[in-house]
Amino acid sequence: MGHTSEQKWCNVRFVLVVVGLFLVLYIVRPPTLSTLLASCPPCSCDCSQESILSLPLDVFNNSLEDCGKDDLDMNEEMKKDIISLLSKEINLHKNVTGDNLEHTNALIMSAKRASSHYQKETEKCNMGMEACEGAREGAEAALIEERKLSAMWETRAVELGWKDK
């Protein structure tokens, strides 16, 4: 079931036409996202570029009094002084760090338990290997001794007239 050269070129042309149509539609269509963003009214907040920590508290509150004036939670947060906000954030960082440390310690203890378990299993395996090696050496020595005895008896039997068939 081979395709002829003409069928392959027909398929390639079809794919190129479809890709070309998609490119034309992509370029010509109205940009929906940028249209939506352009219709959004500008923000009324007048936030300066200076660092928040370098501003006096009253300048900070006055320049941002329009931002979130209808949001009660935002108003409460804006009335708090910067030191209490920073101390709250430091405490949150301490809590997160403490939680991370506890989790890390738990993982370390789990790894130590697993390591100890595997070391015990390794020691058992090594003792078993040593026992097997000792038994193999003993069996090998017994086999050598048995072969010597068999050779001696065969020699005596041949001397006494035994013939192997």
TrEMBL record:
Pfam families: DUF1068. The keyword Transmembrane applies. The keyword Transmembrane applies. InterPro entries: DUF1068. The chain crosses the membrane at residues 12-28. Keywords: Membrane, Transmembrane, Transmembrane helix. This is Uncharacterized protein. It comes from Anisodus tanguticus.
